[in-house]
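thought: fold this chain, then report.
action: predict
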Amino acid sequence: MASPTVTGLVRHVNMLALTLLQTTPSVTTDSLILDFYEQAARLVTDGRLKRYIRIELPPTPLVYTFLFNNSLATVSRMCYILAVYKRGIETAVATRPRPPSVSGDGEGDGNNPPRIDSHTYDRSFVDLFNGYIMDMCNCFWRNRAFNSTDTNARACTLSPATINALATYVLSVDRALALNSYFSLSHSPVLCYQSIERVRDLEDDAMQHDKSIRVRHGGPVTQSTLTRLANAGGMRLSWQDYRIEVLRNLADGGFPGVAELLKNAMTVLRKSIDGRLSIQGTPIQM
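observation:
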């Protein structure tokens, strides 16, 4: 049967991938590993196979290694894979199991393999996956990196002692910014350039239409700096619109993964059009 075969293959590659990350770390290694998981993700989006192929998650160390990778392409690709998996798991959880075949030759035998449904994934699997999603939302969108008090949050698997040590170091470098904001769209090492680049483009456009705008944002952008910019005679841009523009810019630039993950995970992006805003993530419910 296809599902057990694919499951065995992915679990084997999971171990190989962790070994490669430890022994030959490089952008090439990351890309080859992601090539495999992207192909595995295709199985759970195929119109027919997705009904029979069980999703197997990448190992936790791999997910977080790629989340904090120094390559935007790697981060984007990992996020996109998880976004695909989120849709697949949600579909499974919402699918009722079929009753057993009366004839005895129905679903579950050699001719009709068992379909993916709400019994496929147990609570621990869903909680683990929701933890990945919440941690990424906390880093990129909510300015709550390494938070462990939110439902499902795993603090990116860091211990409290490690988080406290990092927070102390960050404050010794710059007391104006806390550790939990350093991996936001504005401050993340792999996203900060694209973020301020989008602001510059928006400013150029605004200045062409409004000659009274003479002040530019110095960067990096925060909610308070946007307010100060507007009060100083600069472009008026809301915090919400700024972040959505950054996500669009990333997608347009060939890095759709972060936007795809957040769009699938956060109510705020799905409801921003009609004004019903929320900052809560939307975990998979069982």
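thought: worth noting. The radius of gyration is 22 Å.
final: tokens above.
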